[in-house]
Give the backbone structure.
Amino acid sequence: MREVTPLGPLRGSVRVPGDKSYSHRAVLLSALAEGPSTLTGLSPGADVAATLDAVARLGALVEPDEDRVRVRAPAGGLRPSDAPLECANSGTTMRLLCGVVAGIAGTHRLVGDASLSRRPMDRVATPLRLMGARVSGLGPTLHAPLVVEGGTLRGIEYRVPVPSAQVKSAVLFAGLDARGPTTVVEAVRTRTTTEDAMRAAGLALEVAPEGGGRRVTLAPGRPVARTWSVPGDPSQAAFFAVLGAIHDDASLEVVSLDAAPERVGFVGVLARMGARVALHDHGAFHSLTALSSALVATEVHSHEIPSVDEVPILTVAACAAEGVSAFRSMAELRVKESDRFAGSIELARRLGAAAWAEGDDFFVEGLGAARRFAPFHLDAGLDHRMVMAAAVAGAAGRGGAIDGDETVATSYPHFFRDLALLA
Ligand code: S3P
């Protein structure tokens, strides 16, 4: 358990870890490429470490060297591992790896921790089976441990039924080794990290708008080795954006960020709430500034934040706002590292706000200008984003206690240090 104390005036600049999504893709593409790749700025969390371990088990050479990691495919390409591929807490590792190993002849076993073993994997098994892989797991929604029988795949056209960059990415990774092109159609635009990284690795992708979403077609091919420089993670910047906005006396900056449109929906939400939070374009990267603000309630639809990763921290912003905020179509929150739908409502209530669910929507009646969050005790359900959202509330409010705080190690091992440095 960790006690979070209220923090005094907040000033300063934070460099958040390298983007987790980009890090996973850069590692996987490097392990598949011809020749050695060098990666800098990788996310230092356990999730990306799991992807590095997995590609090493598949035969890739992984050499950490001070602030960089070198990755190289084995002669003859990746091959099945005798030991299971340990994906730990990382859904991205498990789902993207399913796509990678589907194209590697042989039997692959994938395992995860208790949280990951509760998450549905049928969403990737369905398209991979259509491509010719055999995928088995536990129960109707296919939970880990998983067994994937990889082999020769065929390209398919697949319409992703739930907005999910992980599913899109699993299919595209499998498509690298397939006969014929692979097309993924998404009705809602999800993050384009895989498409961007694949293009950077010399692969041929065509992207066209379709309805409100996109049609992405990949020609099979082998990525080229390169130097990857990973930008800062905007989803981690979101914690400091809300911290700055809800704190009584704050002027914060987060430097060196990726700001792809699908990743920074939270900035638009906060702007609508009246937050003095802004992104600044510096060409190769962005920074974000956040100043103390008086917030008003808003309505947030999941399409604005397709991965819904920033909803727990936006719930904290809603708790500090005047009026009732609505979070619409948030079913996907239930199948993240924890049930973040229930967890976000629970966190709001523990802070003293009224919060309630109606179907897949939930509502938060904020405490308004007084912003007197109650001191709280929260079990964060072994979920890093719930821990960080609660910590921000405690630091800006009247403190709190968080069980499961060690799970920040999955994505942001130095979160509590960086938070303390701002006071
Ligand atoms: C991710 C996609 C999102 C997000 C996760 C990382 C990715 O999941 O929640 O933290 O790297 O592709 P979904 O695409 O399944 O919503």
User: Anything to note?
Assistant: Residues 2-16+231-421 form a domain with the UDP-n-acetylglucosamine1-carboxyvinyl-transferase; Chain fold (CATH 3.65.10.10).
